[in-house]
Design a protein that fits this description.
single chain; 317 residues; Spore Coat Polysaccharide Biosynthesis Protein SpsA, Chain A; 2 domains; 7-stranded mixed beta sheet
């Protein structure tokens, strides 16, 4: 009898001042991995904690700890942990014990049965404060309008990815919330599943209004990147041509007024004409320059504007 191949997973968890939660969290993850006979690694990323998070983490095993020099933010911590992961499945989760490690088998099952590349957790019954849930709902509505990735809960850190998803991808800002949206633009298959969400028993939430603002800005950036990353000329050039068209229209009005005997100092049409023509020309030329730079980037680096899922050969003649 041939044994089924064991599932190999890397579990990446960013931590910032979670000294009261890490022992419990590590024990729960360890129990789930051993019960399911996984080959696994647990990666804690200490994001510049000022409490005893690092010291207490050192007493836990098995464990890999990545300690950042200062608090760079959750996205940077995820990026450091993901780049260090060695197994084919990468699972991310928060370090506050609100994500339930018992949902790890569910994520893996959903990924494999549906032949997906990413599965995002959906905290359908959230245990957060009303304010946090209200802000999250507003951000979700705005995100659906901009990105349309069909994910109900992009803010849930409990996700599973195939390692190949991160080839050539670096995270910054608050981008970890929108990784599925970024990957969807490259053709990766995304799904979600309802997961358990637990009340924070110890420690203090790190959520604040600054993260909300950063998240909205990154959301707009990703929406632009998602649509125009490979051909910025389609956006900037199109906008430039539209402004030039406005310039010709206002120019026609200017000429008509001039032929009618109206003084040019008495109207704003000449100024509008110059503004539209100059702005349109600048947008169009900027689009051309960025397009040339991107072409040079893709030709001189290993990065591509697309991703290949597989290459299939049929050798039957």
């Amino acid at each position: 009898m041939i044994d089924e191949k064991q599932t190999e997973i890397s579990i990446v968890i960013p931590l910032f001042n979670e000294e009261e939660n890490i022992t419990r969290l590590h024990a729960e993850i360890l129990q789930v991995c051993r019960d399911n006979n996984y080959i696994f690694e647990i990666i804690f990323v200490d994001d510049g904690s000022t409490d005893e998070t690092f010291e207490r983490s050192k007493a836990l095993a098995p464990l890999q700890i990545i300690r950042l020099r200062k608090n760079f933010g959750q996205t940077a911590a995820f990026d450091a942990g993901i780049k260090s992961a060695k197994y084919n499945y990468i699972i991310t989760m928060d370090g506050d014990c609100q994500n339930d490690p018992n949902d790890i088998p569910l994520l893996i099952k959903t990924l494999e049965q549906n032949r997906l590349d990413i599965v995002s957790g959906w905290r359908k019954k959230r245990k957060d404060s009303f304010t946090k849930r209200f802000i999250s709902r507003g951000a979700h509505t705005f995100r659906r309008f901009l990105i349309k990735d069909h994910i109900h809960d992009s803010g849930c850190s409990l996700k599973i990815y195939k390692k190949e998803c991160f080839d050539g991808l670096s995270l910054y800002g608050e981008m970890h919330r929108f990784i599925p949206a970024l990957l969807m633009g490259s053709g990766y298959q995304i799904g979600e599943t309802i997961v358990n969400h637990r009340t924070r028993h110890k420690g203090v939430s790190k959520y604040n209004w600054k993260r909300t603002i950063k998240g909205i800005v990154d959301m707009m950036s990703i929406a632009f990147w998602h649509k125009f990353a490979s051909r910025p000329l389609h956006f900037l050039g199109g906008l430039g041509l539209l402004l030039i068209l406005f310039g010709f229209c206002t120019g026609a009005v200017t000429v008509f007024n001039f032929l009618s005997g109206q003084g040019m100092s008495e109207t704003a049409w000449p100024l509008l004409t110059v503004f539209f023509l100059l702005a349109g020309g600048q947008f169009f030329v900027s689009g051309l320059i960025i397009d040339v730079l991107l072409r040079n980037h893709y030709e001189t680096t290993q990065n591509r504007s697309y991703s290949i899922k597989e290459i299939w050969h049929n050798n039957v003649s």
